Amino acid sequence: MTVPLPDLFKRVTLAPGGVRINTLVGGNSSGSPVLLLHGYPQTHVIWHHVAPILAEHHTVILTDLRGYGDSGKPPGGSTHDAYAKRTMARDQVLVMRELGYDSFAVIGHDRGARVSHRMALDYPQAVTKLAVLDIIPTRHAFRTADMAFGLGYWHWFFLAQPEPLPEHLIGADPVGWVRGRISAGRRGGQPFDEQAVQEYVRCFRDPAAIHASCEDYRAAAGTDLADDDAAAARGQRVTAPLLALWGEHSFVGSHYGDVLAVWRQYADQVQGRSLPCGHYLAEEVPMETASALLDFLKA
Question: Which residue range forms the structural domain that includes residue 292?
Answer without folding.
Answer: 10-298
